[in-house]
Amino acid sequence: MDSSVPPESRNIGSANLRDALILADELVTDIELSRIPLSHAALKASRLARLLNDDESRKIFQYEAGGYPTTPQGVPQEIFELGRKAGRVSQQKEKDKILEKMKTLSIEAMEAQLEAAKLRLAAAVDAPSHVSSANPQQFVYGGMSNNREREKEKAAISTMAIALSGCRSRIYSYALEKLVELKYSSIASNAFDRIRAEADDQLAIRVPETVTKFSSIYENLASENAENWANAVHSCRRILQSIADVLFPSSGEQLRNGKTIKLGPDNYVNRLMCFVEDNSNSDRFTEIVGSHLKYIGERLDSIFKASQKGSHAEISSRQEADRYVVYTYLIVRDILSIAPSADEKSAPSAEGA
Fold first, then answer.
1. pTM
2. Which residue would you say has higher pLDDT here, 254 or 69?
């Protein structure tokens, strides 16, 4: 089962992620404490995969619970490959040939066969008997033994128990893996939600027009069209420009640290960097924000220039667009965190008091 794609990369809604986290935790506990039959655990795993848009695993667990479909010609190739990923395929030697065979029984059917084998084993005990002879020269034999039948049922029980143990292990591994992923995703999501809330509060006060721009970004990111992903990134550039216009309006050029810095309308990164240098009390903070600003500014400008030429090839996936939006939020929160409040800006200085 391919579960290498993290949940947050599958465009899953936050409600589904919350439900999946609860379900994964419940399923892990169900298996650890043997609270439900294994067939029910497979159905829960199928629902977990559905919530996570993991269609391949959903199908596998559905077949695990209900049995793998077959035809008079055998198992269809697509189903056979799913069975291979579920550990249902084994190799057997027949007439000097190695053949692959697949177990198609549902977990419920295997559980039923295991219980039936246990009952047959219990019924295969030897009947009590007492045989004697008055002739001391005569050999006396007891009744017929069911030893062969018992060995047969023991072998059947062992085979079925091993198969069910493998099913249990795979369901448990999947549920536990998803539980860990979802907990990490939840932590990361909660951290970003806090950052976004802080940035949104400051933007609503200082640059209110950016609120509608972010709404447009969310709509574009939800699209399946790569052009809309590029539009979301262009909106990030416009937001940074708007913030620069408010915090450090454009001017001509300035000499800073022996270098001439361009501060025109299009030099929004330079203007934001100057604002950070003027308002930060930490050289380290200035250095980090400056580095992030340079990176995101170069990427946003590169994508913007590509779009001017009629190309959107710079954005290859929604995940890439997501990354630029997250970077933009981080930069916005850091910059606005050092911006003086309206009271501070209007208060008289000590010299003027």
1. 0.56
2. 69
